[in-house]
Amino acid sequence: MEGYGNSNIILNILKGLVISIVFTLICLFIFSCLLVYTDISENLMRPVIIIITGISILIGSSLGNIKANKNGIVNGAIIGGLYILCIYVVSSLVNGANFALNMQSLLMIGIGLLGGVIGGVIGVNIKS
Known about the structure:
The chain is mainly α. Helix 2 runs parallel beside helix 4 (103-125). The chain contains 4 helices and no strands. The chain has one domain (6-125). Helices cover 77% and strands 0% of the residues.
């Protein structure tokens, strides 16, 4: 696409990030309602949060890269990385000194980057 400049790249990345965050919030709200009003075990929280995170980043990265003709892998990885960075900052503020980088955190980083990369590739290859 001619004229695909840096400002469009930044806007597409921000668009993908916002879509990912909004989708996550909607899914987590629905899951929290299910936890409150059904007999779903709270032991499912971690796996469900990881799945919601991966799907949210995949969707946001795909939609953020639809208008891009190239660099879906890079743009998607940036969206996934920024999303995980936002989660890290919010978790640090909420948990304070108790927040630590552990195996679950590394798993979330990996899923965030992988979801972003796959979503970026999908988004670039969708013909609008």
